[in-house]
Specification:
Number of strands: 0
Structural class: mainly alpha
Order of helices and strands: HHHHHHHHHHHHHHHHH
Oligomer: single chain
CATH class: Mainly Alpha
Helix content: over 70%
CATH topology: Growth Hormone, Chain: A
Largest sheet: none
Shape: globular
Strand content: under 5%
CATH architecture: Up-down Bundle
Number of helices: 17
Radius of gyration: 20 Å
CATH superfamily: MFS general substrate transporter like domains
Distance between the termini: 20 Å
Length: 418
């Protein structure tokens, strides 16, 4: 086995990380957040109520929720590479169904399958970071991985208005056909480039020496004799509850961001898409910033800071429709957008190691998924009752501040366990 210090070539960890970013771009960037950009045209064409649009996103999140635990267990048994590739194919099929069956029930099925494929790709991909990067690099690497979500915003922000301008509002299915083609390409990329372990290409994780890697692997093989240590861990369920607060709050903001700007703040679809693009561009650095902070000062400090900033962002968006406040809110969200999934993945890697990290991340994501599935439905019902999404955004801000930041502050335990 070669140490990365003696290899003259690009360390394969970077190639694996690139494939992971591609997988998350499809699983979340297109499969989930792409819906935000297509939503106004879908809603107008299909004559959907706010409750129905929220229900569609909830179907996506139900599919995600039902799959996350199995995704982690399957990845631990069959290897992340195989599970990720198959799941991306499912995501591509889901996007194709959404476009081919332009009805509310067709969209329900498509959104559900997109959630299944999204979970099957995202959970093993994020957990795979722990296998390729040592603890001193893990937070930063996880931050880079979640940049795939940002790429989704960057791509869909200008792409969807461009496609709709050429196909008309009733041409929104074309957007889903384009997404499906991208997903198939990503499936091939991950099948060819991903590897389950550094040993498969004769290297050790980036940031570890061969001796350190051997010692850690031996310790984790002994620990892996009992899977019960995962679900019996109090730290795991504490992290899961924090993660649920993030799921509930951020999904309200991200799902109805463009809808709120167009229907209540007077933005055109082009201006709203452009702002979403700017959010995506800035959010690329969010994982790097907070992953680096967590590597230096600990996961708890980073989580508290992120939740406070997001809580202020969500509440400000609901309190005012002034242009300055809208940009302030969007800026705070962009700087923190995808950092919490990176921090949670790094925490699972710290505590359980690369072998058990997929299962641990799958379990915490189940609880996260409950909060995430409930958020859009709640927001849609509130909007239909009050004729505004502002109360939902205020609720999201309160949840982020009280349950997210407060719960993170109470998080205890070692910052790392390698």
């Amino acid at each position: 086995m070669r140490s990365e210090r003696t290899s003259p070539r690009l360390h394969y960890s970077f190639i694996a990380l690139g494939a992971i970013v591609v997988a998350i771009f499809i699983a979340l960037g297109l499969g989930r957040h792409g819906y935000t950009s297509v939503l106004p045209a879908m809603q107008d064409s299909l004559k959907l109520s706010n409750s129905q649009t929220g229900e569609l996103q909830s179907w996506n999140l139900v599919g995600y929720l039902l799959t996350v635990v199995f995704a982690g267990l399957l990845a631990s048994h069959y290897g992340p590479r195989r599970v990720i590739a198959v799941s991306l194919f499912v995501a591509a099929a889901a996007m194709l169904v959404t476009g081919l069956v332009p009805t509310f029930n067709g969209a329900r099925l498509g959104r559900f399958l997109a959630g299944v494929g999204g979970a099957g790709a995202n959970v093993p991909a994020m957990a795979l970071v722990s296998a390729w990067f040592g603890a001193s690099r893990r937070g930063l690497a996880s931050g880079a991985a979640v940049a795939g979500s940002s790429v989704g915003l960057i791509v869909t922000g200008p792409l969807v208005p461009w496609v709709l301008d050429r196909s008309g509002p009733g041409g929104w299915p074309v957007c889903w056909f384009v997404f499906a083609a991208m997903a198939l390409v990503a499936c091939l990329v991950c099948a060819v480039l991903l590897r389950n372990r550094p040993e498969e290409v004769g290297v050790v994780p980036l940031g570890e020496s061969a001796v350190e890697h051997r010692a850690r692997t031996e310790d984790q093989h002994r620990a892996a004799l009992g899977w019960s240590q995962v679900w019996r861990s109090g730290t795991l369920w504490h992290v899961a509850a924090i993660y649920a607060a993030f799921g509930f709050s951020y999904i309200i903001y991200s799902t109805f961001f463009i809808r709120h700007l167009m229907k209540e703040a007077g933005f055109t679809k082009t201006d709203a898409g452009l702002l979403w693009l700017k959010v995506g561009m800035v959010s690329v650095i969010s994982g790097f910033i907070w992953g680096g902070v967590s590597d230096r000062w600990g996961r708890r400090v980073a989580l508290v800071c992120v939740f406070v900033l997001q809580g202020v962002s969500f509440a400000a968006f609901g309190l005012s429709q002034k242009l300055g406040i809208i940009y302030f809110s969007a800026g705070l969200f962009a700087l923190t957008a995808w950092s919490i999934p990176a921090l949670v993945a790094a925490q699972c890697g710290d505590v359980f190691g690369p072998r058990l990290a997929p299962a641990a991340l799958g379990l915490v994501t189940i609880v996260f998924g409950i909060g995430q599935a409930f958020g859009p439905y709640f927001a849609g019902r509130i909007a239909d009752a009050t004729k505004s999404f502002s109360p939902a955004f205020l609720t999201a801000g309160l949840v982020a501040l009280v349950l997210g930041a407060g719960g993170s502050w109470l998080l205890r335990g070692p910052a790392r366990k390698t």
